[in-house]
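Q: Structure tokens for this one, please.
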Amino acid sequence: MKKVILFLLGICLLQWSCEVEPVAQQEELQSTAYKWNKHKKKKIFEGIVVEADRCSEDIPDYNFWWYQPTIPFVDQFFASSENAPLTYTEYDDGTINVKGITNSVSSTCMVKVDLWLKDKKTWEEWQAADGEFKDETADGACSGAVAEDQSYYVIDGERSFIKIIGDCYEGAMGKYRLLQRPDPNDPDTPKYGAVIGPGGAIWDSNEGALGLSTWATIADMDGNGLYLVDFNFLIDCDENNTCKRRRCRNGWKKHKRNRRCR
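A: Here is the predicted structure, written as tokens:
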């Protein structure tokens, strides 16, 4: 009789353990998913890039300047199609992604951009990290940017790339890295980083408009610098955006080149 009782108890224990184990596994998976979602970065603003007008200089509107002294100055600029602007996405972890295609204003050269910025800082934090603000007003810049009003970033050289397609300078073609210029880790060069804020495009006549500017280097995959480039552009809402996120809370107003937040 004792053997029968022990046998029945064994069956009950086996059944109980089989029921408990899947529950425990399910709880563990739910806990892992919660932790992953908790730390997953979230978008806090999505917008589009609008070309800068280079202030009083007589050149086409642009978002990307590929410095190449062997060709005319006016031919060194790039702009995106009106129907396919670069996109701008800001995340809650202090990173920004600028992505899309920009085209030479004078040739078939096309650049596919995947630019990432990181390490967001205020002006006070930037100064504490030996950062500076490059005021180009004396050179003709007209956006009215004020150092204290900007947010400061650096290019994430580990995940920023461009792909060059078409008839481009010196036969450049394929995938390249984008690095911050000047190198923020070089103590012998100034630390300017990337700026975003009112007048941040630096070279645009719409004074005080939300914008971005940064100097960069096109490098090979080993990090060897090849070409000098600049990004200068305004940041705006997409027509499909609700315009209720951080940058565009008050709806649209018309502008000569595109729409603008009020």
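A few notes: Residues 1-40 form one domain. The chain has two domains: 1-40, 43-261.
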